Fold DNA repair protein RadA.
Amino acid sequence: MAKARTIFFCQNCGAQSAKWIGRCPSCGEWNTYVEEVVQKETAPAAGSWKPASTVPGGNMQKAAKSRPLADIQHEEEPRILTPDGELNRVLGGGLVPGSLVLIGGEPGIGKSTLMLQIALALKKLKVLYVSGEESEAQIKMRAERLADGQHPGCYILTETSTQNIFRQIDQVQPNVVVIDSIQTMHSTLVESGAGSVSQVRECTAELLKYAKETSTPVLLIGHITKDGSIAGPKILEHMVDTVLQFEGDRHLSYRILRTIKNRFGSTSELGIYEMQGTGLRQVSNPSEILLSQRAESLSGMAIGATLEGNRPLLVEVQALVTPATYGTPQRSSTGFDSKRLQMLLAVLEKRAGLRLGQHDVFLNIAGGLRLDDPALDAAVCAAVVSSLNDLPIPGDVCLAAEVGLSGEMRAVPRLDQRLAEAEKLGFKEMYVSQFNGRNLGEQVRTSMRVQAVGRLDEVLNSLFG
Ligand code: TYD
Ligand code: MG
């Protein structure tokens, strides 16, 4: 019997050391080293996804040979288009065969629901849904809640050992595999507990090898830590092809699926869902929902034309400005960077001559979205002034411009997309920077009145007289 060997792993970056170290030399984090038992002997090579008995010759591996790039043939395998348009969009146009996709998100946000829904919707394919977190009955109950809970080719396996999972995979021969949470999986090749750095790394390596060798896409669900990063080693994110983040306020029904890394597409994509009693519904026209509760002629509201990823969105910025009851006025913002709000208030004070020093300012982006597009600046300023003066902004006006420190309106990228979206939603007038207006030229045809303005105070004068 071989002696159990232990190694210290950095829980942050996965670096290893024979001894405990206080500060990780590779990532610089303090106190992240944890001792884990590793066992290398007798078993097949680490990273192997096949059960020991099926690996011919045990540890023997065929060495790869280098080849000139020109000689390498590749056949483009068609992507698997899922019935979920939002997921296809964030994946850059469908699931790539043999890809490893990691979906991270806070507990209860709906990761398992989304994955089960997709497993059930892939009607033409055989899907294996492996859960290490829930019982078969729980999964069945969830499937019954979903609007479309029937799919004879969807197999459920409640198992946490990767070797057993691969045995089942051998039998079922699925076209897509879902692993409900990589942190609950464990491999017998490594001795430490499930969720530890070496287990997560080993299980991911086995699944990666399986995915690449059989061209089967594997969707991994990953937990998230308190600070919002995916739990486990950074290495996990390096190993997979695509990292998606599922986020949103748990008390609100909107959920956003964001691309963080994608080897097969752009990372600026975004999918929007709404959590309903019957599962997640795709929201293909988010602006309509974000604006639907708008009552005409209320003060403190302005519509900003923003871009989330490649998708134009019109959002409602709400501000409430009231005289401060206590000495220090409060500034609070939801869904918008509060430092940026402070800066814009200072600009309003200095460049537009508003007296906000004695007022509390509350800002909210409707719908529970968190946005950081600077093009919202003008709408934030307009909402604040509208509330301060108690003068509403006409319902068919929107704004898209960054506001600079000297009160100038700065250009924003891809104005044509923002204009097109606003026009589609029935807006008549958009305030933009004069620098955007200059380049707009003839190529953009729009029936909107485009007000190209140089300074923020001109916008405020024009809106509030
Ligand atoms: P779940 O998918 O288990 O989240 P995760 O796997 O990310 O931890 O649960 C999502 C939440 O959504 C849960 O609180 C119940 C709720 N839910 C609905 O509102 N409607 C539904 O149809 C389903 C299945 C869940
Ligand atoms: Mg879950």
Notes: DSSP finds twelve helices and 21 strands in the chain. Residues 111-112, 133, 180 surround magnesium ion (ligand 2) (CB under 6 Å). Residues 53 and 159 are 20 Å apart (CA to CA). The mean pLDDT is 85.
